[in-house]
């Protein structure tokens, strides 16, 4: 049974229980956060590094966690920000930014030995890479992670209405891409 977030936060405040609290936090959220990050940047090693950065940043600020949002959405916000910062740094080194980033990540899907998806999953991932970052994030969180719009709103700091519109536009673009793609 997974520990309650309140229990993790309680243990994090006790000097002799901090390591236990950190281990519980990582055990509870590492897989979900890893896949959230991995869907955005594709590459396993980069996702692994960003996951570690996320936990280190979260742990460094856990004493300042106010509880305005759930621990889950707070961690997702940190992971999302870490991932977006990483993507932006990568883009700085690319000539045509979005197009180059899309091509680079698309090539990673084809060559990554850790990508276990079939051909349809590869095509879906490539469709997602063609979306603007915000639409891709919203689609991933709603479709793959089954997050509520309210939770996504807490993570991204965007209104529920705007998120619904982003998700709708993402779905329409994916449908159009798949319909127009030659198989």
Explain what this protein looks like in three dimensions.
The chain is mainly α. The protein has a single domain, classed as Rna Polymerase Sigma Factor, Chain: A (Orthogonal Bundle), CATH 1.10.1740. Helix content is 76%, strand content 0%. The protein starts with a helix and ends with a helix.
Describe this protein with a few key phrases.
single chain; about 180 residues; mainly alpha; Rna Polymerase Sigma Factor, Chain: A; about 75% helix; globular; RNA_pol_sigma_r3/r4-like
Protein structure class? mainly alpha
Q: Helix segment count? A: 9
Largest sheet: none
Q: Tell how many strands the DSSP assignment holds.
A: 0
Concise structural overview:
One of its GO terms (biological process) is DNA-templated transcription initiation. The protein is an all-alpha fold. The chain has helices at residues 5-12, 18-41, 44-61, 71-92, 97-111, 119-129, 133-144, 149-156, 160-180.
């Amino acid at each position: 049974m997974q520990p309650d977030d309140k229990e993790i936060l309680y243990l994090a405040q006790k000097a002799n229980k901090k390591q236990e609290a950190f281990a519980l936090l990582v055990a509870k959220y590492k897989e979900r956060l890893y896949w959230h990050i991995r869907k955005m940047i594709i590459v396993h090693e980069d996702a692994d590094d960003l996951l570690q950065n996320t936990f280190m940043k979260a742990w460094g600020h856990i004493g300042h966690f106010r509880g305005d949002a759930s621990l889950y959405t707070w961690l997702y916000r940190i992971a999302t920000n870490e991932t977006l910062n990483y993507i932006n740094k990568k883009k700085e080194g690319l000539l045509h930014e979005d197009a180059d980033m899309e091509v680079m990540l698309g090539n990673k899907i084809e060559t990554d030995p850790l990508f276990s998806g079939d051909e349809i999953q590869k095509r879906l991932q490539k469709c997602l890479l063609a979306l603007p970052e915000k639409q891709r994030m919203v689609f991933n969180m709603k479709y793959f992670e089954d997050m509520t719009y309210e939770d996504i709103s807490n993570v991204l700091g965007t209104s529920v209405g705007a998120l619904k519109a982003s998700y709708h536009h993402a779905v329409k673009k994916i449908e159009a891409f798949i319909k127009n793609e030659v198989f």
